[in-house]
Amino acid sequence: MDDKEQAIARKGRHIGVVIAVTMLLWLAMSLFIGPALKLPGRYALLFDFAALGGFIYAVINIFQLWRMRQDNQR
Q1: 14, 16, 12, 18: which is closest to 54 by C-alpha?
Q2: What's the pLDDT tens digit per position in 2-53?
Q3: Taking a C-beta distance cutoff of 8 angstroms, is the pair 68, 32 a contact?
Q4: Which end of the chain is more exposed for a tag (fewer CB within 10 A), N or C?
Q5: How far apart are CA 13 and CA 8, in angstroms?
């Protein structure tokens, strides 16, 4: 496996971890931690925006991964 393929695989694993951790933290904060701490409902919106930021970061990286694969096929 050459360096480009290793970089592609590493980036794919990174994206998977970002998506999984973002989802777990979002669910934990919105469903369990927030209500347990009796946080007002407006904090749920803050958690939603933080998760949205994580997912947007993942989408940008998915696009970069797609471009890396396109360049690798040439």
Answers
A1: 18
A2: 889 999 999 999 999 999 999 999 999 999 999 999 999 889 999 999 999 9
A3: no
A4: C
A5: 9
Q: Is the pLDDT of residue 1 over 70?
A: no
Chain centre distance of CA 25: 11
How many residues are there in the chain?
A: 74
Q: Both tokens of residue 47? A: 């958690």
Using pLDDT thresholds of 50, 70 and 90, give the confidence band for residue 74.
confident
User: Tokens in use for 3?
Assistant: 């360096």
Maximum Cα–Cα distance across the chain? 55
For residues 2 and 41, is the Cβ–Cβ distance under 8 A?
no
